[in-house]
Amino acid sequence: MDAHALRRQGWTISAIARHLGRDRKTIRAYLNGERVPGQRRQAPDAFVPFLPYCRQRLADDPHLWASTLFDEVTALGYQGAYSTFTRALRRYQVRPHCEPCHASTGRNVAVIAHPPGEEIQFDWLELPDAPEGWGVGEHAHLLVGALAHSGRWRAVLSESEDFPHLVQALDEVMRKLGGTTRRWRFDRMATVCYPSSGQMTAAFAAVAKYYGAGVDICPPRRGNRKGVVEKVNHSAAQRWWRTVPDGLTVVQAQSGVDKLAVRMDERRRRIDGVVTTVGELAAAEPLLDIPVRPYPAELEVERTVSPQSLVQFDGNFYSVPPGLPGAQVKVIHRLGEDDLRIATAGRAVIAQHHRAPRGAGQTVRDDGHVIALERAVLASFSDRAPCKNKVRKPLSAAALAEAERLRGHTAAGDPAERVVIDLSHYAAVADRLRSVPPPKKEENPE
């Protein structure tokens, strides 16, 4: 505006440029209408000439890698960088949508309404690189349960993902949440349903009936149906699992994930214009009461007996009879009962104990096992002085006789290694050579 006003007053372009502190070419472009205030001049997009080719290639092969397509267009004369090329692919939406690969990307998404107290979403989270002291193999298993309405979640570490461990973790998660909802939602895990058909198994149907809840199975490749627990899995993996040190025990790790879950109850939510928190929403959800004892599934794990005749289970140690160090035994516990049994591989029960609280670090010993172990140790104990190691001990007569037997056995058993030196044959040959007359001279016939 100033340039046009000064021009109408008769100022030259050079005077206007000096007055406004701009280049003369810039002033001339604005005065001639070549530039418009508030609009930047866009450089020509180098990708546009190659757009039809890229559309055709990705229409033929929607899964073609962008790096492969970049190599092709570079050979055709494209001068841009790879990051600029991929940005142009996204800007022009060149790659077509593939429904099996991107179930919820590139199509309309509807928000699923979750009334209070209606649904809990459960999912296993496999955590790689578990500490060696946990004894769970390469992966640790975390069962996460999230209230679909409020977003409150709790999680339980488990040794395995089989049916008894699933029931045990399921019960503990619901007790941490304060009850159960009317419906449970799972993906197609084999311990809940048949993955091919989605029909619930009879064993898990009995579990759901015991707790008075219905079960909803997600369709195949529809993880967005349980998006609440999927987001919780991401938070637990990034905010807790990435920082778990090597020396941490399972009980300490469980305490860490519990603290994170409680801290995330402070997340803020806005409901009908009112600001609240996840914890306040969860406290208002009408959850159903659960039975006093968990579903009586039988938990069976394999353990190794220690040299102290102890077996580790759920953060405690239980005694077995002496004489079994290093043996493989099975710990059998029916959920809800106060006792556990320790059996051999053939399921012969060798010990039965009152189960200590999980993670208490207690050592539960049977008096009979203690007495038997003391007797076995004392019987093998000797009060003699230690043997002297700086003494001379030549070979005994029995050892020498055994050595001679071995030498004779070796000589008779391997003719190839037997060496016999006998000079009588050579002496007889020499005597015959001495008595042999000299050869006669041939006579000349002439």
TrEMBL record:
InterPro entries in the cross-refs: Cro/C1-type_HTH, Integrase_cat-core, IstA-like_C
Superkingdom of source: Bacteria
Pfam families for this protein: Mu-transpos_C_2
Domain Integrase catalytic positions: 112-294
Coiled coil spans: none
Annotated protein name in UniProt: Transposase
